Amino acid sequence: MDRIRIRGGNRLNGTINISGAKNAALPLMIVSLLTPETLTLNNVPRLADVRLLQRILQNHGVDIMIAGKRPGQNGQSGDVKQLSARTIADTTAPYELVSKMRASFWVLGPLLARCGEAKVSLPGGCAIGTRPVDMHLQAMEKLGAEIAIEAGYVVAKARNGLRGNRIVFDKVSVGATHAALMAAVLAQGETVIENAAREPEIGDVAQCLVKMGARIDGIHSPTLRISGVTSLHGAEHTVIADRIETGTYAMCAGMTGGDVMLRGARSDTLGSVIDVMRKAGIAVDETNEGLRVQRNGRALEPVSVATAPFPGFPTDCQAQLMALMTMADGTSTIRETIFENRFMHVQELARLGADIHLNGDTAEVRGVRKLTGAPVMATDLRASVSLVIAALAAEGETMLNRVYHLDRGFETLEDKLAACGADVARLSGN
Ligand code: EPZ
What we know:
- This protein has helices at 22-31, 48-59, 95-98, 108-115, 134-142, 174-184, 200-211, 243-256, 273-279, 318-325, 345-351, 381-393, 404-407, 413-418; strands spanning 3-7, 12-17, 38-44, 63-66, 79-84, 92-93, 117-121, 146-150, 153-157, 166-168, 190-194, 215-217, 223-227, 235-238, 258-263, 283-286, 290-295, 304-306, 331-335, 355-359, 362-366, 375-377, 397-401, 423-427.
- By secondary structure, it is α/β, with parallel strands linked by helices.
- The strands form six sheets. It has a four-stranded mixed beta sheet with strand order 22-23-1-24.
- A hairpin with a 3-residue loop joins strand 16 (283-286) and strand 17.
- Helix 4 packs parallel to helix 6 (174-184) and helix 8 packs parallel to helix 10 (318-325).
- The longest helix is centred in the middle third of the chain and has 14 residues, at 243-256.
- It binds ligand EPZ.
- Residues 23, 26, 102-103, 129, 131-136, 171, 173-176, 315-316, 338-339, 381-382, 409 line the site of ligand EPZ.
């Protein structure tokens, strides 16, 4: 297994290209199941989760090509993927694949809408919380599907096709909104989804669906109105920039001090992250190229933050903010409201010298003057990268184990940081 070695203390200066968003690329690839024509996706990040989803889609019969690069293309703009689901060869998504990546459960909606049936494994356990799928199933039932749970699988049938309906979600769920949207575009009649998630990735998927011929009103709002169509056609779409990667590198720059241009980053997708960064004493400025993040000499100020659905502070940046606040000039409070077990980074940050106290869903982070490198490991993607942030400022060497978590969601992280002056290297496990 690979490891990443970081020797802390270097300021970051330079430019980081922001990749396409993992959490948009995954549902966009799943959208390809809705049409027999080719969906071309640009700016697809090269990530382990994307490769895994590719295998899952191929199992359903999707033909996937990676378009060749032209001379002069430097590989920084992601892959161009062409996905063609001419026929659906298999409507079963097996446990062996779905258990490795929860988002693959989202094939349920499109398979049902296109084929009138789907058998998809329940995803199983998760390191950050219980993560049920009840809202996904309720949405499919509202659209007229019959649902049964058999031997760990969701077996869904809609023999006469799905029918539009009013779906009111009790709470905001990104996945359940994706599922309802992807199913409703091919349902007969009108569907209204209320209390829909407004995360920018939902908007990106909706805009791609519109290019494919779907009729959707209220994109980016909590109420989506969908008039079902009988078929969708091929289209070309570019995956939006990754707002979580943006927030993460902004916090890297804030942690070490320095001046970093996050090329391609979009402030309109960041919600309250920019406000929080500014309150912490980090300058964030929008330019034609992207977002410029600087902290030159100013102390890091403590902040009080609770995670919330978009446009609130994203749970996917909570661990990174906590790492940043370990060296703030005072005590911060960070409350996690989305997932009940998303504090697995606390004990690893403590190994680097952080002073963090947990009380239920709230972490009290008392800033320390110094962190010290140590061997660490993490149990999920965002927790892993929080350890990278802390290590960049820690004295001495940090060895990050279980790098496969990082590879699920951060494209060439060590190269991007090293190009800005960080002392970071990947050590091959062989
Ligand atoms: C998406 O997960 C993201 N995954 C997560 O990113 C992200 O943390 C999360 O949204 C919240 O923003 C992808 O986009 C691939 P939810 P999702 O449904 O859709 C509860 C990362 O690190 N809930 O919005 O699974 C759920 O338990 C990942 O990139 C139900 O109760 O999250 C949670 O408490 C991790 N029943 C809350 O809703 C349901 O049927 C929000 O979860 C569905 C969800």
